[in-house]
Amino acid sequence: MHLVAIVGLVLYLLALMAGAVIETPQLARESGSFVVHVGAFGLSQLFVFLLAPRWRDRLLWLVLLFLFGGLIEAVQHFLPWRSATAIDLLYNGIGLTLGFLGCLVLERFARWRGWLPFSQVRSCS
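Below the sequence we write its predicted structure tokens.
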């Protein structure tokens, strides 16, 4: 399961990077930047919660993925058919935060229902 989550995260990040350098798809232009950025970076937290049971690791991944979003915006700055904006970086951060909180709620619910053992619960240290 761990290997599947790692491969999934790598493929997901590659897809995000590929999406950053190709021309904006019609769906992204129509649905708006907010939906695309929040959805893409929020979904990345699902992989983080599958890969990292410790809080310290999850928070580190949160920061790394935010920096990855910054890297994507930096690359877009140099592409004539794309544009880099601070608002997109803000949307990435909102997506990461909402995804993190959503996964936290789902994890707590799964522990409450007995689907996950309570012995893996760690403090925020």
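The CA atoms of residues 6 and 51 lie 7 Å apart.
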